[in-house]
Specification:
alpha+beta, four-stranded antiparallel beta sheet, three-stranded antiparallel beta sheet, 2 domains
Length: about 130
């Protein structure tokens, strides 16, 4: 009778040891998967940062190109005035009235305020602000 209880206890002990070894192996596999996932996630993060840097560099390049363009045609001195008519802002430049959305040379007027006019280049999407000086 005692032998059968010992055999049963030994069998249970062996089964528990096998289960523990299996759990340790499974845990090791999971840890490796997590490390791989973390590495891939870090790579995705670096790729996103690189994409942001590239976009920023492209924007900076557009601004550099924009800076090379002769803006003599749209100097603030040529702005004769800014007016609000029925809540719609407009600007008078060289005798021509422009409103938001109007084209002005290579530019589109996107915003008119009392202090400045914001233009966007149609080709490069570069933003220029023309300030109204009193």
């Amino acid at each position: 009778m005692i032998e059968s209880k010992c055999r049963l206890n030994i069998a249970v002990l062996v089964v528990l040891i096998v289960v523990m070894i299996a759990q340790l192996r499974y845990r090791g596999v999971q840890i490796e998967k997590i490390k791989t996932f973390q590495t891939e996630l870090a790579l995705v993060g670096r790729i996103s940062q690189m994409e942001d840097i590239i976009r920023t560099q492209e924007r900076m390049e557009a601004f550099r190109k924009e800076g090379d363009i002769d803006l003599a045609k749209i100097q603030p001195q040529k702005i004769s005035g800014i007016a609000m008519q029925r809540g719609v802002p407009s600007v008078l430049v060289d005798g021509t009235v422009y409103s938001e959305g109007s084209s002005f040379g290579e530019y589109v007027i996107v915003k008119i305020t009392k202090e400045m006019i914001t233009l966007v280049n149609k080709k490069t999407n570069a933003i220029k602000n023309l300030y109204v000086f009193e």
